[in-house]
């Protein structure tokens, strides 16, 4: 035998031992892995992406850390959902859950350094994802929300010694904006747009609208629309007219529900939403901008805005009212038509439709503090004729075809003293009717609209204080002239020279109109004087406030003939007179309402769409009065002196007890109104929070 020596083998470094952890590709193929890092031999030969997974203990620790961070993010998300509307909930949750799943943590060691949810925020498509920030743009000194925030700050300064152990949860005053709270309005897919309700149900809703809504906003020509309504059951009406009818049914359904307190009565609790959906399908759909505008389209948009205001959706109503206003301006119904071919009845119907749009837009901007698009040159039409809608009556014959030169149909703002006397004599000879009250309401709205522009204009801070004071004095005189012109059956005060409220013993048929006039008049006084009242009450230097009002903001010259003490005494008397006038106006607003809250009384005798606004403004002034009495050192702690008022018009004092009683009464009414819609409920809760800061004894336990 010849021995053949064996060849010597050179073993690799990794072939002499077993690797402790194979890479992921070798595990999936169940192949032997040499454990070479960063890339094993097999993965290198096959050109695969070689990666090693973490051991179970480290992987679980890291996944647990990610879970802790996600739980913290979810807790913050739930807290944020409480302050958001329903439309934002789905988007916020989707954005939070769109991060990488937990199984992705073990894919790569370097990815374990990934950021948290808050650190990986992407640039959103919409800057204002929060509905509260979307609606934060409001003019100061107009809506009660702004005054509530200011009053909350003042109350916080006054009660800085509040106990720290008070654990009651309160709504932050800085987050108040109930007009921007969005309530989802459902869209029904199976609603027949041309379907009419039962005749008895339709008659009830139709008569409810005509009795309680039409006298305040004459959007429709009553006689013509009533005749068309009776024919609609036999002949299929046009599409837009049917949309108008469904909106009338929706508003009448809301009123009927509040009056009877038996639900919507008839076909279910969502009747008003069914009628709204029918109207939207008929004339408020996506084709609204593709069709020509006519008078019926203006009526549809105005009625839809009114329904949204009644439902508490002020921001949606603002959008719809602006659309109605633009449609009206497109048709030119804000200008008195000179065409002789157009009958006088048609001219007056167009005129009343324009003023109804004007009234609704004016109300909405006073509620939410938005800028009005109606300027002084937009309107060249006359005030509504103070006669009923039957234009064939002999009383209207002498009116003929009115021209812009008719002085007694001009606005009080633009009348001379002689023209105002002529206008007062003309109104005194008119037969009592709802048209006379509507005429007076429109005239008052033009004055209040100018007041809003005066106190909230963006150019007002740039003007000289003397110009501001001169304009405010003129507006105050215009309110006095309007009040003096009221005919006897429209009077809500003791005399033309007195603002003292007196509504007892009035005829029931005109009581509703007088309540509307009284609420509008006293609210106009509040809007006019509230900035000066707040300036007096605030913690700013009182001498600076007096100098701003009486000395026109200029420094007092040293060679003035009057001594500074006499000048300051006169200035303080003028400022105190403004304070008392504002307080008495707020007291009169609350005095209009009965002692016991009643939803039926509010629905029948007040404008349901604005009663919350009037009560909140008055309550804000009353709470401001409590702060004023607590801070003022010149006034007695129990009673305001009557000598501060010149002229002897107001002959009674305002006691602290009376103010507290009126605040309690207003809060009872706000609590009752909170049952109507979510916006009223939020308003009551916000005012209850504010009361706890100023008068804790009057706060409701909610």
Automatic annotation (TrEMBL):
Domain Zn(2)-C6 fungal-type: 22-52
Gene Ontology BP term (one): DNA-templated transcription
Pfam family, one: Zn_clus
Keyword 4Fe-4S found: no
Domain of life of the organism encoding this protein: Eukaryota
GO molecular function, one term: DNA-binding transcription factor activity, RNA polymerase II-specific
Keyword vocabulary terms for this entry: DNA-binding, Metal-binding, Nucleus, Transcription, Transcription regulation
Name assigned to this protein: Zn(2)-C6 fungal-type domain-containing protein
Species of provenance: Aspergillus phoenicis ATCC 13157
Lineage: Eukaryota, Fungi, Dikarya, Ascomycota, Pezizomycotina
């Amino acid at each position: 035998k010849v021995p053949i020596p064996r060849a010597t083998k050179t073993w690799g470094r990794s072939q002499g031992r077993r690797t402790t952890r194979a890479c992921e590709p070798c595990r999936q193929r169940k192949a032997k892995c040499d454990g070479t890092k960063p890339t094993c031999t097999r993965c290198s030969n096959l050109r695969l992406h070689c990666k090693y997974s973490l051991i179970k203990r480290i992987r679980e620790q890291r996944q647990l850390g990610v879970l802790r961070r996600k739980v913290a993010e979810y807790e913050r998300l739930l807290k944020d959902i409480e302050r958001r509307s329903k439309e934002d909930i789905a988007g916020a949750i989707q954005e939070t859950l769109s991060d990488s799943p937990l199984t992705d943590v073990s894919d790569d060691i370097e990815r374990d350094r990934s950021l948290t949810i808050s650190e990986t925020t992407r640039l959103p498509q919409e800057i204002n994802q929060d509905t509260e920030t979307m609606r934060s743009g409001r003019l100061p000194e107009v809506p009660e929300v702004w005054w509530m925030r200011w009053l909350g700050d003042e109350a916080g300064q006054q009660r800085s010694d509040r106990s720290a152990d008070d654990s009651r949860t309160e709504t932050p005053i800085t987050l108040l904006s109930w007009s921007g709270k969005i309530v989802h309005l459902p869209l029904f897919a199976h609603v027949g747009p041309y379907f009419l309700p039962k005749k008895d149900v339709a008659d009830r809703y139709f008569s409810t609208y005509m009795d309680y809504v039409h006298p305040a906003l004459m959007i429709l020509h009553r006689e013509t629309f009533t005749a068309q309504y009776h024919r609609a059951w036999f002949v299929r009406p046009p599409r837009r007219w049917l949309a108008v009818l469904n909106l009338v049914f929706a508003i009448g359904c809301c009123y009927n529900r509040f009056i009877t307190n038996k639900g919507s009565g008839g076909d279910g609790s969502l009747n008003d939403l069914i009628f709204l959906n029918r109207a939207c399908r008929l004339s408020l759909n996506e084709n609204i901008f593709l069709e020509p505008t006519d008078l019926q389209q203006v009526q549809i948009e105005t009625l839809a805005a009114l329904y949204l205001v009644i439902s508490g959706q002020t921001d949606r109503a603002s959008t719809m009212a602006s659309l109605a206003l633009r449609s009206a301006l497109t048709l030119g119904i804000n200008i008195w038509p000179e065409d002789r071919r157009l009958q006088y009845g048609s001219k007056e119907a167009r005129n009343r439709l324009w003023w109804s749009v004007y009234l609704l837009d004016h109300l909405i901007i006073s509620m939410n503090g938005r800028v009005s698009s109606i300027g002084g040159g937009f309107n060249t039409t006359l005030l509504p004729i103070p006669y009923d809608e039957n234009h064939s009556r002999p009383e209207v014959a002498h009116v003929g075809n009115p021209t812009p030169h008719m002085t007694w149909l001009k606005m009080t703002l633009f009348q001379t003293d002689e023209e105002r006397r002529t206008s007062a004599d003309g109104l005194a000879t008119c037969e009592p009717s709802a048209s006379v009250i509507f005429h007076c309401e429109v005239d008052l709205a033009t004055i209040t609209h100018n007041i809003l522009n005066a106190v909230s204009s963006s150019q007002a801070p740039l003007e000289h204080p003397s110009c501001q004071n001169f304009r405010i004095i003129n507006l105050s005189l215009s309110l006095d002239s309007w009040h003096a012109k009221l005919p006897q059956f429209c009077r809500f005060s003791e005399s033309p020279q007195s603002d003292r409220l007196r509504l007892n013993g009035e005829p029931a048929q005109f009581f509703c109109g007088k309540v509307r006039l009284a609420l509008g008049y006293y609210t106009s006084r509040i809007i006019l004087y509230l900035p000066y009242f707040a300036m007096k009450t605030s913690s700013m230097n009182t001498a600076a406030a007096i100098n701003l009002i009486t000395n026109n903001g200029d420094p007092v010259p040293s060679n003035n003939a009057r001594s500074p003490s006499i000048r300051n005494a006169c200035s303080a008397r003028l400022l105190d007179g403004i304070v008392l006038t504002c307080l008495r106006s707020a007291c009169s607003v609350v005095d209009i309402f009965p002692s016991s809250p009643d939803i039926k009384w509010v629905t029948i005798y007040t404008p349901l769409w604005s009663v919350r606004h009037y009560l909140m403004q008055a309550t804000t002034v009353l709470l401001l009065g409590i702060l004023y009495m607590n801070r003022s050192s010149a006034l007695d702690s129990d009673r305001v002196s009557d000598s501060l008022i010149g002229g002897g018009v107001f002959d009674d004092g305002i006691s602290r007890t009376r103010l507290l009683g009126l605040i309690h009464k207003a809060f009872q009414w706000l609590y009752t109104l909170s049952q109507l819609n979510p916006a009223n409920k939020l308003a009551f809760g916000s005012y209850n929070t504010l009361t706890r800061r100023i008068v804790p004894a009057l706060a409701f336990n909610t």
